[in-house]
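Hey,

Quick one before I head out. I ran the complex with nicotinamide-adenine-dinucleotide overnight. Inputs first:
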Amino acid sequence: MKAAVVRDFSAPLLVEDVEIPAPGPGQALVKVLFSGVCHTDLHAAHGDWPVKPVPPFVPGHEGVGEVVAVGDGVTRLRIGDMAGNAWFWSACGSCEYCGTGRETLCPDQKNGGYSVDGSFGRYMLVDAAYAPVIPEGVDLAAVAPILCAGVTVYKGLKESDVRPGQWVLISGIGGLGHIAVQYARAMGMRVVAVDVSDEKCELARRHGAELAVNALSDPDPAATIKEFTGGGAHGGLVTAVNGAAFSQGVGALRRGGTLALVGLPPEQFPLDIFSTVLFGLTVRGSIVGTRADLAEALDFFARGLIEPTYTLRPLADINAIFDEMAAGRIEGRVVMDMSA
Ligand code: NAD
Ligand code: ZN
Ligand code: ZN
């Protein structure tokens, strides 16, 4: 089968012939029809983070396709079902985190397209107990971005503790952020958005942001947001791949506000101790979502509340797609049509 393989963190991916994997006990083999491209795949291919994947590996954790074979003991998936992979690929099921509804913190989890080969190939393996089942009748290309971008921002919005009618800041209107605007609206929140291009700001407005600030042309985005919202956002989500956006996000919070950190730029940001203490701010990390979060996120999509903006591209374009992503030139998400 054809797959895009990372062989070296400093070289382009190679689209090459790879053996079709065989499903082991508890696993299923999925023929991939569509796969979203997440900025995490780019971080993975570059070895950006402290814990690195081991080349050679196949990235991709927004894959959707048809189950074509199942291993021993599989009952949850059957041949012909539509299923997907996710970053949260599997976990141990028995540690203190798995046992308390916090399975995405499991130290023994496996990650799709990182520690386990992902969806940038014509076939992929999934763990039948963890793989998302795609709701019947949905558009199989449009649903792909829900498997990472969708569930991640849905969970992040919960973690922001923003209530219906309150202001939420969405910083970074890329693949994750433009979907975050839509979940926030569906959850009854009022949205202010920040990005560094006028096109992304326009995308945010199109999806329902009441204010979208270009952080490059506005001399003080946090002040603009505080004024517009009458005191600051009640909470927020930073999906930007840039450290400066994180400081700005904290600066745009209302007293008592919570910022969920979602973006993973390989840099740090300074957290001001004085204002964090005096204004009672909370800053917390938010990592993808549990199986239950993903099922809920898919349900929002199936009910027509979320419409990812995406472009279909072939797998052969993967290196060009990564270049465009690094330059911030992608509108919404790229979804690869794996049969193209
Ligand atoms: P993307 O490239 O599609 O979007 C990033 C956006 O950030 C772009 O629109 C870009 O213009 C914007 N941006 C850049 N600098 C900015 C700044 N200073 N202020 C505001 N916006 C700025 O990427 P994506 O696929 O949406 O992923 C975003 C990040 O989230 C990546 O680092 C990815 O690894 C991470 N991620 C985290 C999780 C999680 O569970 N926490 C899940 C998926 C992705
Ligand atoms: Zn992702
Ligand atoms: Zn566990």
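The domain at 150-285 is CATH 3.40.50.720 (Rossmann fold).

Talk tomorrow,
K.
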